[in-house]
Amino acid sequence: MRYEHDGMSLWFGTPDAPAPDEAVPANKPLPITIGISPQHACYVVTLLYRISKRSEKPKELPAKWILSDSFGKAQYYQAYLPPFQSGSIVEYTAVCRCEGQQVQSPEDAEKLASFFRVRGIQAISDTAGDLNVAVAEDGLGIQVATREFQSP
Q1: CA 80, CA 18: separation in Å to the nearest integer?
Q2: Mapping DSSP to helix (H, G, I), strand (E, B) and coil, where does residue 27 land?
Q3: What is the per-residue pLDDT for 53?
Q4: What is the pLDDT of residues 104-133, one digit of tens each?
């Protein structure tokens, strides 16, 4: 994603500023790197996120400065999203503020245009007689079935 507003550019989900893929593992913190241009000492970069389909106000995480490129054209920040449970869909975006200016625009930031799905194995098992059947769902609707015979 790339946004431009008030003379600033902000991007993430690119080779130089990686963000989560469409599906991520459950119960692990997720780093998101955010690029900002031009360079400036006053930037305050935050990450907004919420679990999809909840009416709650997005939570805001501070992003920390990690790098300025050697040509003076960009600065990079990083924030870590907390671990999420399997089956969650997380919406997020990044915002940079500086001296009364902001990129993304406040209207665009409210949309939380990026998202990912959290997946992980959740197992359910049922024993019927001498046949044990286990079915697992990974949060994306994929099911796996295994059968094991118990010894008499």
Answers
A1: 12
A2: coil
A3: 77
A4: 888 888 888 899 999 975 544 455 555 454
- Give dist(CA 140, CA 124) in Å, integer: 16
Cβ pair 34, 48 in contact under 8 A: no
Range of the structural domain that residue 51 is part of: 2-120
Of 2, 135, 24, the C-alpha closest to 87 is 24
| Same domain membership, residue 145 and residue 95 | no
Q: Which of 45, 20, 18 is nearest to 30 (CA)?
A: 20
Burial of residue 137, with CB atoms counted within 10 A of its CB: 0-12 exposed, 13-18 middle, 19 or more buried:
middle
Cis peptide bond upstream of 104, omega within 30: yes
| Helix extents (H) in 23-149 | 106-109
Q: Number of structural domains, the chain?
A: 2
Q: How far apart are CA 40 and CA 106, in angstroms?
A: 20
Q: What amino acid occupies position 146?
A: T
DSSP state of 83: P
Q: Is there a single domain that holds both residue 81 and residue 131?
A: no
Residues 90 and 133 grouped into a single domain = no
Same domain membership, residue 100 and residue 51: yes
pLDDT band at residue 49 under the 50/70/90 scheme: very high
Q: Does 125 lie in the same domain as 114?
A: no
